[in-house]
Amino acid sequence: MFLIIIGTMHCLFLSAYNNDIPEIEMVVVEGGTFTMGFDAHEAEHTYETPKHQVALSDYKIGKYEVTQALWEAVMGDNPSVFKGPYLPVENVSWYDVDLFIKKLNKLTGKHYRLPTEAEWEFAARGGNKSKGYVYIGGDEIDSAAWHFGNSDKCTHAVGSSGANELGVFDMAGNVSEWTQDWYGHYSEKPQKNPKGAKSSDIGKIFRGGSFANLLNYNKPSCRFVSNPNFKSPTIGFRLAE
């Protein structure tokens, strides 16, 4: 799907409004090898094919999508259309996210980043704990995601739908998520820790269905792309390390 589209909470947000940085919960993803992409008969578009083997090293990925509370603590503003501290931040461009991460790293001394497209898909599939679900997080999408059929056309608090096999929330539904990668065509050749194209006239990849998408957009191999300046209430992000 090549689209250019014009819960339980823990201690994530305890100090979001006194300019302290809220705790950021990360999930360790043990490295492994997986099959990325769709076969031709599964895909709606050729740029989701061919299937290819990808090997990844260990990394960490955000347990939750970045919230408005965390964004406000770092940036001092809130660009989101749907307001609420526990809701995912949205209506942010890829370049906005890049600036946020640079400021966050300066404040925390950490090395947060966006996940690569391959890291995002591997985590969405459940990593080495994958059960081979049709959708991200389960075969019954209503329990795994806020999508067009159950969302009331708005975002919901992060972590309020079911987690996937790794214990990561909202990789399906709620908001789609920017990744680090520029768009590029897939190759049949096996790859190790791929980082996408060096540049692209088309844009940056984002992944995962949103509250406004139909069920099939929540399959782990679905790809989306847009100009990195583009903003939408259906697109947010999560962190990686």
Can you put this structure into words, describing what you see?
This protein has 241 residues and is of the alpha/beta class. The chain is 15% helix and 15% strand. It contains four helices and nine strands; from the N terminus they run ββββααααβββββ. The protein has helices at 68-75, 94-108, 117-124, 141-144; strands at residues 26-29, 32-36, 52-56, 59-62, 176-182, 191-192, 204-207, 224-226, 235-236. The strands form three sheets. It has a four-stranded mixed β-sheet, covered by helices on one side. Mean pLDDT is 90; it is low at 1-18.
Helix content: 10-25%
Give the CA-based shape.
globular
- The share of residues in extended strands comes to 5-15%
Number of helices: 4
Distance between the termini: 27 Å
Low-confidence stretches: 1-18
Oligomer: single chain
Task: Outline the biggest β-sheet.
Answer: 4 strands, mixed
Radius of gyration: 16 Å
The count of strands amounts to: 9
The SSE order reads: EEEEHHHHEEEEE
Structural class comes to alpha/beta
Global mean pLDDT: 90
Order of strands across the main sheet: 8-7-5-9
